[in-house]
Amino acid sequence: MCGNTCCVGACVVVKADAVAGCRGLARHSHLLDASGDRVLGSQANRTFKIDYNGDQFLKDGQPFRYISGSIHYSRIPRFYWKDRLLKMKMAGLNAIQTYVPWNFHEPLPGMYQFSGDRDLEYFLQLADEIGLLVILRPGPYICAEWDMGGLPAWLLEKKSIVLRSSDVDYLKAVDNWLGILLPKMKPYLYQNGGPIITVQVENEYGSYFSCDYNYLRFLLNLFRQHLGEDVVLFTTDGAVVEYLQCGSLQGLYATVDFGTGGNVTNGFLIQRTIEPRGPLVNSEFYTGWLDHWGEAHQTVSSKAIVTTLTDMLSRGANVNLYMFIGGTNFGFWNGANTPYAPQPTSYDYDAPLSEAGDLTEKYFALREAIGKFEKLPEGPIPPSTPKFAYGKVAMKQVNTVEETLDILCPAGPINSTYPLTFVEVKQYFGFVLYRTTLPKNCSEPVSLSSLNGVHDRAYVSVNGVPQGILERNKVFSINITGEAGDTLDLLVENLGRVNFGSKIDDFKGLIYNLTLGSVTLKDWLIFPLDMEDALQCYLSSDAAFRKSPSNSTLPSFYVGQLSIPTGIPDLPQDTYIQFPNWTKGQVWVNGFNLGRYWPARGPQVTLYVPRHILVTSAPNNITVLELERSPCNFEEKCFVEMVDKPVLDGPLSSSKES
After folding, report:
1. Which residue ranges does the record assign to the Beta-galactosidase galactose-binding domain (predicted)?
2. What residues does each domain of the chain span?
3. Is 284 a catalytic residue?
4. Residue range 411-529 in CATH 2.60.120.260
5. 183-200: per-residue pLDDT in tens?
6. Better-predicted residue by pLDDT, 224 or 547
7. Is 49 helix (H, G, I), strand (E, B) or coil?
8. Over the chain, what is the mean pLDDT?
9. Is CATH 3.20.20.70 the classification given to domain 5-371?
């Protein structure tokens, strides 16, 4: 979100009333005819339908089976979209599948972002140019290990709202959003000359508690209103009878999802309980699996995937490989599961294309398997992108978060008798600092208790002296010391909202009162911290800081500069950043939020740095927010390192010390 004029160019915000007349196509002149109308391909006789009698799809009247792969444009820089799509095409895929995260495009009510890395229309145009059909999954809920399953956090400003239901407030917001998105998508439908062959309505709704058929009917009518009667609309649910019973609706073609651990015969028999005729479809055949902080990196063998894929293709099934490339949860976009377990920055997924788009052994194994059923495209496969180990970058500690409050919260704090949640102070991501004073002397340690009301992690200090960490579902109380009137600070971090299940209404911050011994703490100053604008505009180099010496165990900013070597051709190249002896925090390169690092908990050790954010004309500014403990008490250890290989399976710790 950009709130300062100095950030012009970091994101483009479009008012709702301007969207209808702006399709973002003028910059693609080769896709316009003489009248200015969009031209993707001839619309003559283009049809895509379900042939129930033949148990198949018909494309232009001919039997058709798709073998597709999932790619999330929101997890891959626009700079690399074409490279990844070409690699998918060369693997033998004839289609791609992508989600549309609502919160990625409407960060604030009525404010829409469709440019740069959010330019969905350009992504669809690239797919079409490359010869890939598109399976579109616009939600409004997507799951996807994405913050709140793609739903915008501002929905929770209506405290009683029931998400993914026929709740009036929810339906109004959905109606507004899809009224913007779906008209943009209609020209890209296959029958209109575009690449979109099918459109999913909702996502795995049978796994949600509400089982609200009125909600599904509302969505069905809304999709038909905006997209017309010809497009194939479908649903996806886990291969469980009860899931399909709640997740499907007449007028929506029901499909299933399962991975290598599922029984293919049983999975498709379950689809047949709802769809006795029509094509067999596995909309999410898992090529790997997701990770969580503090848990082992997940992998699935190529052999198991090829065996199951071959079985499905031998039955004539349509299969989508989820994921074909996972990408990265840049910034604060990662989700979480319950019991609360946030996902890391990498969404590598052990997919056929790595997080950085590299060709893997799994890629070639799947390409060979697909080649037994479909003709593979001719020509060279785009190579893996080169990586460069730039080496160590010296860092220096500058200001603590507390010392930077005037920049991070220029409007000043909000006064409240009791704590307010992130949503109540309109802070949807990142950090909020809660401040009060100790109501009594605590010369001996006294328990500061949250009753598990810290969502998700609070860094506690008294008069600038670290006291400990409170963490959701892990650490509910710590002992603190101090004198009456001392300043008590809790820097609360949102680690990512729950994206699946009944707990997606995931409020962040101090959601319950805190007690000191038996005393309820009151009279809070609440500082919403605008990290993104501050880093874009002010804190990207050491010149912005006051450079006061600080305690290396307080949440603090550190800065360093990476100069790209001269005399070496083709630099800059992709790289990875790692944090030897650092603990946990956030990192920005030239103001670009790479995401969270947490080597103290694992398994992810390195963060992917795409080359398009690096420059050769000037030093690259690296800004680190270390939340717990840095190695910078020793100057020779105060560095980060740029390496040429990822480490996603590092050592683990789930203790409260990490």
Report:
1. 555-616
2. 5-371, 391-399+532-643, 411-529
3. yes
4. yes
5. 999 999 999 999 999 999
6. 224
7. strand
8. 93
9. no
Q: Which of 222, 210, 213 is nearest to 138 (CA)?
A: 222
Assess whether pLDDT exceeds 60 at residue 443. yes
| Catalytic option among 121, 145, 202, 284 | 284
pLDDT digits (tens, 9 = 90+) for 161-220: 999 999 999 999 999 999 999 999 999 999 999 999 999 999 999 999 999 999 999 999
Within 445-526, residue ranges assigned H as helices are none
Per-residue pLDDT band for 657 (boundaries 50, 70, 90) equals low
3-state secondary structure 325-391: ECCECCCCCECEECCCEECCCECCCCCCECCCCCECHHHHHHHHHHHCCCCCCCCCCCCCCCECCCE
CATH homologous superfamily for the domain 391-399+532-643:
Galactose-binding domain-like (2.60.120.260)
What 8-state DSSP symbol labels residue 542? G
Per-residue pLDDT at 533? 84
Give the pLDDT confidence of 546-587 residue by residue, as tens digits: 666 567 899 999 999 999 999 899 999 999 999 999 999 999
509 SS3 class: strand
Q: Select from 368, 238, 367, 365 the least CA-distant residue to 301.
A: 365
pLDDT tens, residue by residue, 275-312: 999 999 999 999 999 999 999 999 999 999 999 999 99
Say which DSSP state 469 is in.
Answer: E
Token digits of residue 32: 């316009």
Structure tokens of 431? 């950090």
Q: Which of 204, 275, 355, 532 is catalytic?
A: 204
Residue type, 17: D
pLDDT value of residue 538: 67
Cβ pair 231, 196 in contact under 8 A? yes
Amino acid at 361: E
307 φ, ψ (degrees, to nearest 5): -60, -50
* Sign of the C-alpha dihedral computed for residues 457, 462, 464 and 468 taken in this order: negative
Look at residue 408 and give its three-state secondary structure: helix
Instruction: Say whether 204 is catalytic.
Output: yes
Query: How far apart, in Å, are the Cα atoms of 158 and each of 365, 415, 522?
Result: 49, 21, 24
Q: Which of 645, 649, 405, 613 minimizes the C-alpha distance to 525? A: 405
Rounded CA gap, 500 and 206, in Å?
Answer: 12
Whole-angstrom CA distances from 415 to 97, 404, 406, 503, 610 are 46, 19, 16, 29, 41
pLDDT in tens, 510-544: 999 999 999 999 999 999 999 988 887 766 556 66
How many CA within 13 A on the CB side of residue 46?
A: 17
Domain 5-371 and domain 391-399+532-643 have a common topology: no
Residue 493, helix vs strand vs coil: strand
Give the residue-averaged pLDDT of 441-469. Answer: 97
179: exposed, middle or buried (Cβ count in 10 Å: 0-12, 13-18, 19+): middle
User: Whole-model pTM?
Assistant: 0.93
